[in-house]
Amino acid sequence: MLGAKLGITSETNNISVLDYYPNATVAYSLRKLTSNYTGSAIKVRESGGDTEADIGFRSDGSLNELDLLNHCGSNSGYIVEWYDQSGNGTGLRELTDSATYQPIIVNSGTIVTSGGKPAIEWTAAGEQDLQNTSLGWGTVTAQTTFQVLTFSNTSLNSSHAYMRTISVSDASTSDYLLANNWIPPHRSNQTSGLDIYGVTGADIVSDTIDWNNQALLTAIHTGTAISGFNNGTAFATNQGAANVLDCTMVEMALGMQTNSDVGAGDSHFAGTMQEVIIYNSDKTSDRIAIEINQNNYYNIY
Q: Helix (H, G, I), strand (E, B), or coil: what is residue 221?
């Protein structure tokens, strides 16, 4: 019964985490997260003729790598859109529609992987991003983020935003949720490692990064406290006025800090991502079960 509750059964092949823990606000993955989702995982542009194709899943819920390779051939494949499996239709795209800034998933006919499974790669020199500027989330008072990714320490800048959302206010107002637009704020730095920020702009919690290896990072904002977990292990919790969460989110992005950073050569993520699940709620009670599901699929730790 415990295995079924955790979403870990032979029938689901560790896929159906959202069947057991529904109501995600957004859910992006290169595996199928729920039996209720009937769409594709990603839209991919091949570099030979710039044709685009939706790439879905195999019957076991994994990414259809054959379709991906058939589409790209010996060319490279770039992400046009990462579809949202939550049912809320919040896909992420490179909003300037510039091929220059699209992250890569096939490199000259070879699928990019991390831990032996397909991955989307952001390169330090490429300044890639995926965004949505019309979230419509309303007022957010708690949030939990689960993310499977790998940090590259090659040719990085000093600050590397790998996920952020932005409120309706600007940085000078108290309604601006977390410093530098991240909620929960996710940043890597070659000197300080993994940083989580509060509204005052100061580091709230930090941890070291296992460079070039997969990581499962969880950030929970209860509304009054921020907690961080690295591969299932808590590294810090901080409570205080700097952590009060109550504002409206209108934009989010993967792979960069702010919209002005597109093409600016600063504050861009370098590494791979395979899964991002966000709940606009406190998932403390379900955290371990969700992490077990993710780890059993990706075999991270």
A: strand
Statement: the pTM of the whole predicted model exceeds 0.90: no
- DSSP-derived secondary structure for 60-89: TSBB-HHHHHHHHTTS-EEEEEE--TTSS-
* Cβ-Cβ contacts under 8 Å for 238 (sequence gap 6 or more): 198, 204, 205, 225, 226, 227
Neighbours of 202 (CB within 10 A): 11
Residue listed under structure tokens 């007022």: 139
Domain ranges of the chain: 24-298
| CATH architecture, domain defined by 24-298 | Sandwich (2.60)
Q: What is the mean pLDDT of each run of 10 residues along the chain (301 residues)?
A: 42 72 96 97 97 97 98 97 96 82 95 97 75 80 86 55 47 29 41 50 55 85 80 74 60 66 57 91 95 95 92
Give the CA radius of gyration of the chain: 18
